[in-house]
């Protein structure tokens, strides 16, 4: 949002606009219309707009350098590998708990428990352990993500990007 003093200052230049084209409008058509607007502004405000151009480009990570994109992909791979290790550890934990339950199952069989009761008891135990493990991991993950994103403005309830301005009319109804 520009302050009123900045709106009146025609020399203020750090402006990048992101928009969505109407269905059926090509980038070339949008470029022609934006160039026409830029030339009208140059005629109306020659001291500040002469020689200024407008560029319409598709939004495709062209705002990040190639080495940054490569590093982000590498970070994604590392994080995915860590999540894979965590999932294998949880599966291993559940298998170990099942193996530990073998003795309990053997005692129940020797006392005359039927197959249906054994399955029901095992399902209850596995369900309870899985829910406890999932709830604990989910709450820890939620807490750690909110702590980790706090320096970046995460968890503030503010939205940014195109979704934050959906439905807002910014004077460009023709696209």
**Uncertain spans, ≥5 residues at pLDDT below 50?**
156-175
Rg, Å, rounded: 30 Å
Query: How far is the N terminus from the C terminus?
Result: 21 Å
Q: What does the main sheet amount to? A: none
Fraction in beta strands: under 5%
Instruction: Bin the helical content.
Output: 55-70%
Number of helices: 5
Oligomer classification: single chain
Provide the structure class. Answer: mainly alpha
Mean pLDDT: 79
Q: What is the element string, with H for helices and E for strands?
A: HHHHH
Q: What general form does the structure show? A: rod-shaped
- Can you count the beta strands? 0
Written account of the structure:
By secondary structure, the chain is mainly α. It is rod-shaped. The C terminus is likely disordered.
Secondary-structure blueprint of this entry?
Layout: H1 4-8, H2 27-44, H3 46-49, H4 66-110, H5 115-149
Summarize the entry for a quick read.
With 175 residues, this protein is an all-alpha fold. It is built from five helices and no strands.
List descriptors:
175 residues; mainly alpha; 5 helices; 61% helix
């Amino acid at each position: 949002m520009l302050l009123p003093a900045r709106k009146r200052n025609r020399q203020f230049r750090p402006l990048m606009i992101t928009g969505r084209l109407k269905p059926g409008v090509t980038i070339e058509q949008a470029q022609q219309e934006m160039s026409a607007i830029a030339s009208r502004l140059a005629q109306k405000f020659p001291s500040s707009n002469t020689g200024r151009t407008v560029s319409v480009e598709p939004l495709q990570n062209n705002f990040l350098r190639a080495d940054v994109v490569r590093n982000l992909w590498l970070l994604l791979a590392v994080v995915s590998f860590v999540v894979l290790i965590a999932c294998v550890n949880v599966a291993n934990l559940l298998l170990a708990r099942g193996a530990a339950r073998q003795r309990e199952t053997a005692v129940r069989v020797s006392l005359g428990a039927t197959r249906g009761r054994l399955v029901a008891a095992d399902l209850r135990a596995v369900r309870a352990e899985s829910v406890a493990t999932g709830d604990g991991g989910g709450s820890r993950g939620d807490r750690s993500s909110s702590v980790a994103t706090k320096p970046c403005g995460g968890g503030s309830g503010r939205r940014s990007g195109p979704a934050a301005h959906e439905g807002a009319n910014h004077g460009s109804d023709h696209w």
